[in-house]
């Protein structure tokens, strides 16, 4: 499907507590996706008034992350952030060095995900960095607020990647978070258009975070076949893997994810699927376009995605749609 011609028309600002906190125009965040969160995409989202995110661990070294941050700065002078995903591994990345590269590069917005941000909070606070912590439950969001994060991004069960083990969808999770938090938060999982943004605001969120929608943007550094599959797929075309291991992940349905589900359902252990789910195989999907080369993340929101569009156009379109939805509802319920 050809990319629509980009639009240069600005969208009227949609102001919330989240936009005020970060100095951005619109409450739309581009998810920090592994292998995808690079300069061109992040800059396009930020330039349109949203918050673009570079993914730190996509860069092989802290020095290369610093270069990617500099590349982003050459593309936009608007605020953008860096995602730092913290996961327990046999050989952990040099998180301290990545943190230092972020701060030394002058970045003041960091999205943390995975494990608790607690080990990183003192360092970031000392350097004036505002932390947005991504989590999948109200209890984790409340704990993050106590730790001093500036905002939370809360993932409903619809999201790509790891939705946690509670299986609470956004329609319940978002208002529950609104009742429990005092800091700004954005809703994540299942959002792809202006209807979703308007709904998130109505449920008490201060904005939305989108991964799958921006994965299917012109600037996303993934193969065209991946974007076509997202456009063609429905909300039924994902699989939940690792359920038996209590490390659930939502990925695209393909030969590999079907095999992983089969093996684990039959009593298999992680070692039985390790070679199938390696990150190197998933990266091949994005870079080479072989949709069955490995597992790759996509959310239920793919059922709402109908085109491949420039990321800036997506931001402007979604804000305009949200305004139209809210105006239409006001007219419908007035009098």
Overall, the morphology is globular
Spans of 5+ residues with little confidence (pLDDT < 50)?
1-6
| CA radius of gyration | 19 Å
For the record, the CATH architecture of the largest domain stands as Alpha-Beta Barrel
Mean pLDDT: 95
Main beta-sheet strand count, sense and barrel state = 8 strands, parallel
Description:
It contains 14 helices and 10 strands. It has 335 residues and is α/β, with parallel strands linked by helices. It has 2 domains: 17-222 and 306-333, Aldolase class I (TIM Barrel, Alpha-Beta Barrel), CATH 3.20.20.70; 234-297, no CATH class. Helix 2 (39-47) runs parallel beside helix 3, helix 2 runs parallel beside helix 14 (311-333) and helix 3 runs parallel beside helix 4. The radius of gyration is 19 Å and the shape is globular.
What key attributes describe this structure?
two-stranded antiparallel sheet, single chain, alpha/beta, disordered N terminus, globular, 2 domains, 335 residues, TIM Barrel, Aldolase_TIM, monooxygenase, 8-stranded parallel sheet
């Amino acid at each position: 499907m050809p990319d629509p011609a980009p639009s240069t028309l600005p969208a009227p600002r949609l102001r919330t507590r989240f936009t005020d906190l970060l100095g951005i125009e619109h409450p739309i965040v581009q998810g920090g996706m592994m292998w995808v969160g690079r300069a061109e995409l992040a800059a396009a989202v930020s330039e349109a008034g949203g918050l673009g995110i570079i993914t730190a661990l996509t860069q092989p070294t802290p020095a290369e992350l610093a270069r990617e941050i500099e590349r982003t700065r050459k593309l936009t002078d608007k605020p953008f952030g860096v995602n730092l995903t913290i996961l327990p591994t046999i050989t952990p990345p040099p998180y301290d060095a990545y943190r230092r590269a972020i701060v030394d590069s002058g970045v003041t917005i960091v999205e943390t995900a995975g494990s608790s941000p607690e080990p990183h909070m003192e360092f970031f606070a000392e350097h004036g960095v505002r932390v947005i912590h991504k989590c999948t439950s109200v209890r984790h969001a409340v704990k993050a607020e106590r730790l001093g994060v500036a905002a939370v991004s809360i993932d409903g069960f619809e999201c790509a990647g790891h939705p946690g083990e509670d299986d609470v969808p956004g329609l319940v999770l978002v208002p529950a978070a609104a009742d429990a938090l005092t800091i700004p938060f954005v809703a994540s999982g299942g959002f792809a258009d202006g209807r979703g943004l308007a709904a998130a605001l109505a449920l008490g969120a201060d904005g939305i975070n989108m991964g799958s929608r921006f994965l299917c943007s012109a600037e996303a550094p993934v193969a065209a076949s991946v974007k076509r599959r997202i456009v063609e797929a429905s909300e039924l075309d994902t699989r939940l893997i690792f359920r038996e291991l209590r490390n659930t992940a939502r990925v695209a349905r393909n030969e590999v994810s079907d095999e992983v589900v089969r093996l684990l359902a039959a009593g298999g252990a992680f070692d039985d699927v390790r070679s199938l789910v390696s990150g190197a195989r998933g990266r091949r999907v994005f870079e080479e376009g072989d949709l069955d080369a490995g597992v790759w993340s996509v959310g239920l929101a793919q059922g709402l995605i109908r085109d491949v569009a420039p990321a800036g156009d997506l931001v402007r379109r979604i804000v305009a749609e949200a305004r139209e939805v809210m105006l239409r509802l006001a007219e419908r319920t007035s009098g």
